[in-house]
Amino acid sequence: MIDLDLEQIAVRAQTLRSFKAADPWQGGGQRREWTLNLYRIVADNAVLVGEAVPAPSPGERIADDPRKALLSADEALGIEADGWHRLIPRVLARLWARGDVGDTALPVLIHALEPQLRRRDFLRPMTRSGLWAITGVLGAFAVLSLAAFLVLAPPAFVMLPLGGILAALAVLLAAVSIVLEIAVRWRDRHIETQFRAARVRLGV
Questions:
Q1: 91: Cβ–Cβ under 8 A, 6 or more apart, which residues?
Q2: Top-confidence residue, 102 or 1
Q3: What DSSP character marks residue 47?
C-alpha cells in the first residue's frame, strides 16, 4: 500500500511478473527479487491497512504483456521488494511500455530521480478528461439555454443571461484546461529528458 496524500492510496491489485535487479536504496547494489504490480488508486478510507483491494475481474486482469496494457484512470504500475512498494512515474512507465527501458532498470531510475519527483508525476492528470468533460457539459447547457431563449416565450428571457454565464464558464474552463495541458506536457518532457540522461549516466 502506498500513501499518495490527498486522501488517496495505491493498493496492489495484481502481481504481473517478477525480476531480479539491484536495490539502489540499499548500499552495495545488492540484487533482490522484485515484482511488477498493478495498483488501484482508491480513497484512503476505502481500504483498511493490511486489507486487500478486491481482485480484478477476469476481464480486468492483465493476462498478456503488461507493456501493452491500457490502464484506466484509477490504475498505476509499480514495483515491490519484500513488502516495500514504489509506483512507477508516469513518464518512466511510458518509456518502459515502449521498450526503451527494461524491468531491471526500473528500481535504479526511480531511485535516481526520486528527489525531483512530485505526486503529479505518478498519477494520470485530469486535464485530458475531467476538465474537458466539465467544459463540454457547460457548453451544452449554454447552447440549450440560448436555444430556449430563442424558441420559448417569456419568462424564457432569463435563459439568455444564464446561457451567457454558462458559455463564459465553459470558455474559462477551456482556457484553464489548455494551460494545464501545456504545463503537463512540459513537465513530462522535462522528466523524460531527466530519465534518459540518468539511463545513459548509469548505464542501464
A1: 121, 188, 191, 192, 195
A2: 102
A3: S
Q: Do 185 and 99 touch, CB atoms closer than 8 A?
A: no
Q: Under the phi-then-psi rule, with left for phi > 0, alpha for psi from -120 to 50, and beta for the rest, what region is 169?
A: alpha
Domain span at 80? 2-118
CA angle (10 as vertex; 5, 11 as ends), nearest 5: 140
Residue 173 near residue 184 (C-beta atoms within 8 A): no
In DSSP notation, 127-146 reads: TTTHHHHHHHHHHHHHHHHH
| CA contacts within 13 A on the Cβ side of 106 | 32
Does 27 map to a domain? yes
Q: pTM for this structure? A: 0.74
* 8 Å CB contact between 78 and 85: yes
> Do 106 and 141 fall within a single domain?
no
Cα three-residue angle 190-195-197, rounded to 5 degrees: 95
The domain total for the chain is: 2
Q: How many helices (H) and strands (E) does the chain have?
A: 4, 5
41 pLDDT above the threshold of 80:
yes
Q: Are 2 and 10 in contact (CB under 8 A)?
A: yes
The secondary structure element, H or E, covering residue 95 is helix 90-97
Other Cβ atoms closer than 10 A to 55: 10
